[in-house]
């Protein structure tokens, strides 16, 4: 009688292991997810603990995870397997075609080694992250974690000056080799700064803006002090705004500034 009860208990446990894959730490995926049509949906960038089916008789035991992305975005995937798992990963279209490294995918690190892929989305739509176990060994220990980051495309619009204004509008010089430079404030969707241009002599905008900026001033700001100029010489000044994606607005506003009127020779002062 005891042997019969023990046999039934073992049979029940075995059936439960097959019927209920929750014991394999599949906290993210919904099995079966062995094709793009069966793929588990990923909501957004995040951390996803997963594992392979221990009863899967195939060599690879593919897992698919579907996500949505728009053209210009980038998806980065890091796969962190445990010491029992030799994981391979890739990005596929909804027909299962490998997009990163066809026809072999990415499996460089071996058992227990992390894998990484990055892919720039060309067309808006649905894509899959494909994970596979590169060995035939599978057990409840064949787990892994996907770290997924979907990044928007870099901004391509330069800062702009509202109301039709553009760049520099005033320079006030002093007789102590300094000048205050004033400009209209720009706006932009990302962080940006102002490039301040200073050129000795009276030059045109093309020549001025072809030189390296004299200094940079982080936004928000509408003026700065420039030092180290010769108060007896003429200078050309200009300002252009540039964002963190290196988009720069191309206004051609310049100011040619003669020496300040307060600078007079010793002969004028004492005669």
Q: How would you characterize the overall build of this protein?
A:
The chain has helices at 2-19, 205-209, 266-270, and strands at 40-41, 46-51, 63-69, 74-81, 87-92, 115-120, 125-133, 143-151, 168-173, 178-183, 192-200, 215-218, 223-227, 235-243, 254-257. The chain is mostly beta strands. The protein folds into 2 domains: 24-151, Jelly Rolls (Sandwich), CATH 2.60.120.380; 162-262, Immunoglobulin-like. The strands form 4 sheets. A 4-stranded mixed beta sheet has the order 1-3-7-5, with no helix packed on it. A 4-stranded antiparallel beta sheet has the order 2-8-4-6, with no helix packed on it. The protein has a 4-stranded antiparallel beta sheet with strand order 12-11-14-15. Strand 9 (168-173) and strand 10 form a beta hairpin. The longest helix has 18 residues, at 2-19. It is rod-shaped, with a radius of gyration of 32 Å. The relative contact order is 0.14.
Summarize the structure.
The protein is mainly beta. Helix content is 10%, strand content 35%.
What is the highest CATH level, the class of the largest domain? Mainly Beta
- The dominant shape is rod-shaped
Number of structurally distinct domains = 2
Largest sheet: 4 strands, mixed
C-alpha Rg, in Å? Answer: 32 Å
Helix tally equals 3
* Order of strands, widest sheet: 1-3-7-5
Mean pLDDT: 84
Q: What's the N-to-C terminus distance?
A: 129 Å
Structural class: mainly beta
Structure summary, number of beta strands: 15
Named at the architecture level, the CATH assignment of the largest domain is Sandwich
Q: Give the CATH topology of the largest domain.
A: Jelly Rolls
Residue windows where pLDDT falls under 50 for at least 5 positions: 2-25, 263-271
């Amino acid at each position: 009688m005891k042997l019969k009860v023990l046999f039934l208990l073992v049979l029940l446990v075995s059936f439960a292991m097959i019927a209920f894959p929750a014991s394999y730490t599949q906290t993210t995926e919904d099995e079966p997810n062995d094709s793009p049509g069966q793929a588990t949906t990923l909501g957004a960038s995040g951390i996803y603990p997963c594992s392979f089916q221990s009863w899967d008789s195939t060599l690879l035991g593919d897992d698919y995870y579907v996500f949505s992305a728009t053209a210009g975005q980038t998806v980065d995937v890091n796969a962190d397997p445990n010491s029992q798992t030799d994981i391979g990963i890739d990005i596929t279209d909804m027909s299962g075609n490998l997009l990163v490294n066809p026809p072999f995918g990415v499996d460089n690190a071996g058992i227990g080694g992390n894998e990484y892929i990055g892919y720039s989305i060309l067309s808006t739509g649905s894509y899959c992250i494909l994970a596979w176990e590169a060995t035939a060994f599978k057990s409840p220990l064949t787990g892994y974690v996907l770290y997924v980051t979907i990044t928007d495309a870099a901004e391509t619009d330069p800062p702009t000056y509202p109301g039709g204004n553009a760049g520099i509008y005033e320079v006030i010089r002093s007789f102590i080799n300094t000048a205050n430079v004033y400009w209209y404030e720009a706006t932009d969707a990302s962080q940006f700064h102002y490039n301040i241009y200073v050129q000795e002599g009276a030059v045109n905008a093309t020549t001025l803006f072809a030189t390296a900026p004299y200094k940079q001033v982080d936004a928000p700001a509408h003026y700065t002090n420039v030092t180290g100029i010769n108060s007896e010489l003429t200078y050309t000044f200009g300002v252009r705004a540039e964002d963190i994606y290196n988009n720069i607005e191309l206004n051609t506003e310049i100011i040619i500034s003669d020496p300040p009127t307060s600078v007079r020779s010793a002969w004028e002062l004492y005669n």
